[in-house]
Amino acid sequence: MTDILRMLALCLLLGPMLAQAAALDDLLQQYAAEAQRPFSAEAGKRMWTQTHPSPKGGPDRSCSLCHGEDLSRVGKHARTGKKIDPLAPSVNPERLTDAKHMRKWLKRNCKWVLGRECTAQEKGDFLSYIRSQ
Ligand code: HEC
Fold first, then answer.
1. Tell me: the pLDDT tens digits for 5-24?
2. Does the chain have fewer CB atoms within 10 Å around its N or its C terminus?
3. Is 49 in the pocket of ligand 1 (CB under 6 A)?
4. 102 CA to middle of ligand 1, Å?
5. Distance (Å) of CA 41 to CA 28, 51, 56, 127
6. Around 127, how many Cα atoms within 13 Å sit in the side-chain half-sphere?
7. Tell me, what's the pLDDT at 15?
8. How would you class 129 by CB atoms within 10 Å of its CB: exposed for 0-12, middle for 13-18, buried for 19 or more?
């Protein structure tokens, strides 16, 4: 009986953890189907600080403008000044666990920074970089 209870406890514990890891893997797999080359955290890192002129005449835009260059630290929204929890999964285990959240924000942030949606390649590179932090 205790064995069964122990097994049950283990499943309850591991289930959500595995499901979360799967959300990111699933998303990366979907993007990989449309990408030209394997995803690269290095490429994601390079793009992270690349600046793009603001269409509104404000400061140049980049991912690091809100999230900072050190993903383990709290960011600050460039427009609203609100704090943004660290993106690095190493300090914030809730990161990259929800496919809907990742899709929504990649779409929004790419549009704001690059003036267009990111390609599947770019999204995969960004996620690979963030995941490594
Ligand atoms: C104008 C500010 C701003 C900029 C610039 C910005 N982001 Fe974000 N980002 C946010 C906010 C706000 C959220 C949603 C709140 C949260 O998840 O803490 C978010 C969330 C995310 C998430 C979701 C993380 C998760 O755990 O699901 C990803 C991925 C992300 N951003 C990537 C990027 C990338 C890549 C760029 C550059 C192309 C970028 N962001 C530029 C403000 C910004």
1. 898 888 888 776 776 678 99
2. N
3. no
4. 8
5. 12, 18, 30, 8
6. 31
7. 75
8. buried
